[in-house]
Design a protein that fits this description.
229 residues; alpha/beta; Restriction Endonuclease; six-stranded mixed sheet; two-stranded antiparallel sheet; 8 helices; 45% helix
Length: 229
């Protein structure tokens, strides 16, 4: 997380990158840590502010924190010049050649191009037990529609606070379950992209994880354009 002086500089670079992203992508190896650090700092600042709410409103604060992170990611994608929204997609289920009923899918990210859905995604502050559903949603949606629309997931981080032994001191616990991620990736279907603003060290080194999990800047600078192409 950046301090105020670092953030003031980083956010300017971040805004410039979004404005000139097409030029940035022409670099041989585009990298921009300002993207990850700026988004992380913005969202953690929001979370810290919500922590100041009375204890009885903690559930409201957690939901609001997640909702605002979703909005932040959508605003960033819109800044790239893309049509991005949240919403429900109803998929017809055809039995013996006739539509029998519809299944509704709620998505945090629906990215369209010329009216066609190009990317579907989920945005969460941390993974916890939500990642499994994203794998299943991709499997069912693409099977029902006979398409191969990319499904992605964007996360802030994958840790939660834990209280330490000393009074008023906190530590962190990882919430990521690598075995579950590998199992769904290998035996069901891989997601087309999983992105973290604050990536865990093992995600960059372990087999399978390192091939499917990236930092958020990779989505902005590279992958989202490939999906649209």
């Amino acid at each position: 997380m950046l301090d105020s002086a670092q953030f003031e500089k980083s956010v300017q670079n971040f805004q410039s990158t979004l404005t000139h992203v097409r030029d940035v992508r022409q670099q041989e190896k585009p990298t921009d840590e300002d993207i990850n650090q700026t988004v992380y700092t913005i969202q953690q600042s929001i979370g810290a502010s919500l922590d100041a709410l009375p204890a009885g409103r903690s559930n409201t604060a957690r939901k609001l924190n997640g909702d605002l992170f979703e909005q932040l990611i959508r605003l960033i994608i819109k800044e790239l010049g893309m049509d991005c929204k949240a919403g429900v997609i109803k998929v017809p289920v055809v039995v013996d050649g006739e539509e029998s009923f519809k299944m509704s899918y709620q998505h945090d990210l629906i990215i369209e191009q010329s009216g066609d859905v190009k990317i579907l995604g989920s945005v969460k502050t941390f993974r916890k037990d939500r990642l499994d559903k994203i794998f299943v949603d991709k499997f069912l949606y693409n099977r029902l529609t006979s398409t191969n629309i990319p499904h992605i997931a964007v996360f802030l981080n994958d840790v939660q606070r834990k209280k330490a032994n000393k009074e008023n001191e906190y530590g962190i616990n990882p919430t990521f379950l690598p075995g579950h991620f590998k199992g769904y990736t290998v035996k069901l279907n891989p997601l087309d992209g999983v992105y973290y603003c604050d990536i865990r060290p093992n995600m960059a080194t372990e087999p399978i994880l390192k091939d499917h999990i990236k930092t958020f800047d990779r989505l902005i600078l590279e992958d989202i354009w490939k999906f649209l192409d």
